[in-house]
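Recall that a protein's primary structure is simply its ordered list of amino acids. Everything else, from secondary elements to tertiary packing, is in principle encoded there. The following example makes that idea concrete.
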Amino acid sequence: MTISNAILVSTYDASGYLTRQTEGSSEFLYTYQNGNLASEVIKRNGVVSTTITYEYYTDKNSSALPLISFYGYDAGVQFGTKNKNLLKKSTVNGSVVNYMYEFNSDGYVSKTTASGSGTSTSTETYTYMCK
């Protein structure tokens, strides 16, 4: 077994969006459309191994989920500039996952559900406290 001390190198565009990451022989390429992450291509040793595409609710602003989602793609920490809208659907090498949201009386996401064909449903509930 070989353990590599590879360094993750991230590249961002002028708007603060993450566009490329490299780590050892792996490369991750990100494209954006209308302020949202549109696709992610993962290459291993120069060969595409995974392609992920994303669709968003155009009527649901990501500010309704002001924290890092466990789905990852609203995470400004990792991806730089935050997506404009809430994630509606992701497609990974042909497998689709749909995302649905419920909102509290203040307009914030209170529940997120992800479900896909042939996969189990994942649900996360959010509670907000003002101080």
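Confidence is low (pLDDT under 50) at residues 70-77. Strands lie at 8-12, 18-23, 26-33, 36-44, 47-61, 85-92, 95-103, 109-116, 122-125.
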